[in-house]
Each structure stands twice: as structure tokens, then as C-alpha cells.
Amino acid sequence: MTAESPVDVTQELPLSDETELPPETTSFWRRHRAVVVAVVVVVLAGAGGLAYWLTSGSSTPTGLVVTTTVVPVTTGTIQQTVASSGTIQPASQANLNFAVAGTVTAVNVKAGQTVTSGQVLATVDTTALSEQVSAAEAQLASANARLAADQASAASTTQIDSDQAAVTSAESSLSNAQTALGDASLTSTMSGTVASVSLTVGQQVTGTGSGGGGTGSGTGSGTGTSGSTGTGSSTAQIVVIGTNSYIVNTTVDDTEIGQIADGDQADIVPTGSSTTDYGTVASISLIGSQSSNVTTFPVVIDVTGNPAGLYAGSTAAVNIIVKQLNNVTEVPTAAISYSSSGQATVTQVVNGAHVVKPVTVGAAQSGETQITSGVAAGDKVVEQAISFRGTPGGTGGGLFGGTGGRFGGTGGRFGGGGFPAGGIGGGGGAATFNAGGSG
């Protein structure tokens, strides 16, 4: 066997051109490998993130959700109302003030005390008033004596007429003095409860004699001690109110006042209460007042009966019933749709199939609408309820990231808080697919 000749491993490799190595052929994969890998990673991450988002705890679909329910056509009552608010006041109220000047010597009542008509509530000093009565009595006695003497002496007719005039004047003076003496006692003009007392012993009063006038919500003034029903007076020395009947003073603006009439029924809900009381329109003022280019008219509502839980001065919501339709065919308002031409329709369920039926609608109230033709009571119709569930994206990351960006994310087209939340894509930056994050 012939031995092979030894090879010199130190010999130089052949060069293609003097001292240069032959060029290495680079494949397409090697040239673009980094880009292809990046794209594949983004696509796989996006697909995985989408699957995670769809199967995660937030599995409820987002956006508008339409829920349909089959409901029967029914009959009921529909009311048309005018809504307002007002103040609860006692139906009877006396605003009492002394009609004579003097010094208060006694105050016999306090707020919250029950009183009767004619009861003395307070008094002023009567010394001067009693002296005036005595002087008037003496003047009258003198006038009568002169008249008697002149008649006995057959005085002239002119003298007798003068004497009689003097007697008449003296009688009037005595009557006034006696009235003033009686006014030294401030008495209640009604039975009720003392609402307020603005008198103290030793106080000087001027004797204005003002008080509430009339019955209802108006106030007025008089010359005597008595006041009567009204809305109250901040200057009244003693206020007595009735606690067995109430009114509500409210207002209605000029766009609705024409719908209201005396005797209309009203629902009354005191503020803070869930109980509905009832009443009727008692009066409508013909004189309105304007504020902010809106004219309103006072309306007084008599509260029916004497319901518990009403307090003078508290507020209440009022719904005045201006029209009531009984035994009308009605459907939920959400069951009604409208065509482009304005035709109202409902979707009726007939033998399991959905049939669109044109209908004629009437009045509506509290989510129910009157149907005057098209369907009848007992028919089944489809009611639609539209709601919004969830918010894709948004702060904290969603399907395409968090705050901002075209699809969410701070600054990134797909970036933000993740792809999906917290995944690849990262926050902050201006990259095309990553907002500068770990992508």
C-alpha cells in the first residue's frame, strides 16, 4: 500500500483576485431576518392579546347593547300634568298686632301653644286708656245735661241742634275710648296653634293694628287687633295658625297657565317624603310677575283632608292633572319605532313571527304611550332596551392600549398601556407600532 504524500497545511488558500477573498453570497432570509422576526412577534403578540382580552374576566361585550323583550299591550290610565313646586302654608292664619300704643304688661302665650278664639294672648298698660274713657264719659254727661237744660228753657231750634251734635260727638268719643281700652288686650281671632311670638313684657308698641287680611295666600292690613288667614307676616307680634287644613302656594308660567282650571286635581309630594298627598286648585291669579323674561302666575292649591307630615313653610313638588284618559290602550314607549316618514310602528309577535305594524299614537306618560289604532289589548309586541356596556381602550389599557393615540395608548398608534393591557406595545414614545415600549 503506497503511503500518501504529506500535505503542507501551512500553505496559503488560493485567491480569486490577487489578495481578495471571493465574495460571500448572502440569502434574503439572512438579510431581512431581523425585520421578519419583529413583524411575526408583533402579529403573534397581537393575536394572543386579542384572544386574552376576549376570554378574560371582561367578557361582557362593549358598546351599545340592544335587549328585546316581548310585552303585552295593556289598558290603563294616562294623565297629562303640569309640574311645579310650592310652599306649604296653613289654610287659616291670623297675624295679630296691638291696635293701640302702650307698654306691654303681659304675654300669656308662647310658640307651640294651642289657643281658642277670643283668648287673651297679651296686654298693654291701661292707665291712660282708662283715663280717656272717664274723660269721654264726663264729656258725654255734660253734653246731655246742656241739651236737657236748653230743651227745658225752650231754647231756639239752632241751639237745640247744636246741643244734639255735641251729644253725638261725645258719644263717638266715648265709643272710641272704650274700643281702645278693649284693644289693650290682644285676643286670638281663631282657634289654632301659636306659631310665633314677638312680644316681651316692658316692650313699647306703636299700635299699628296691621294683620293678615282675607282667606288664602294674600296679606293685608287693618285697623283692629285681628288678622286672619294669610301667608304670614314678619312684623306680626303674634301669629296663630290652623293645623287642621293646609294650602300650597305655587306658580305656573305663562306657557302652561292656560291649561289649568279651578278644581283641577293635584298630586303633592312634600320635600323629603315619599308619600303623595292630594289637593285641588283653589284659585288662579290673573296677575303675573316677570323674572328673567318668564312670567309666572300664583296658584293656590287646597290640600285634601289633614294628612300627617305637613309643616308650614316647607316645600313640596306639585303635579297638577290637567287631563286624564281612562281605559286607554297603551304600550311601553320603548316598543314604538318611527319610519323615515314619521310613521309610528310596533313589532307585533304573531304566531312566533315578528310583524311590523303601523300604529297611531296618542298621549304619553311615565314611559307608556297611548295607541289609538293598530294593535289591541292582549296583543304581544317587542320592547327594545338600549344600554352601553364597557369602554374599549381608555386609561389603563384596553384592546389597543390606554389613554390617547389612534387606538389608545399614550402617543402610539397601537401602543399605550399594552397590546392588550400591559402586553407588548409599552407606553410613551412615537414608534409606529409601539409607543416606545418593550416591543
Please provide a written account of the structure.
This protein is of the alpha+beta class and about 450 residues long. It contains 3 helices and 22 strands. The strands form 5 sheets. It has a 6-stranded antiparallel β-barrel with strand order 2-11-15-13-12-16. The chain starts with about 25 loop residues before the first helix and ends in a 50-residue tail after the last strand.
What pattern of helices and strands is seen along the backbone?
Answer: HEEEEEEHHEEEEEEEEEEEEEEEE
Number of strands: 22
Spatial sequence of strands, sheet with the most strands: 2-11-15-13-12-16
Task: Please summarize the sheet with the most strands.
Answer: 6 strands, antiparallel, barrel
Helix content bin: 10-25%
User: Hey, roughly how much beta strand do the residues contain?
Assistant: 25-35%
Parts with pLDDT < 50 across at least 5 consecutive residues: 1-5, 7-22, 210-233, 393-439
Rounded to an integer in angstroms, the radius of gyration calculated over CA atoms is 47 Å
* Structural class by secondary-structure content: alpha+beta
Oligomer: single chain
Described by the principal axes of the CA atoms, the overall outline is: elongated
Mean pLDDT metric: 78
Helical segment tally? 3
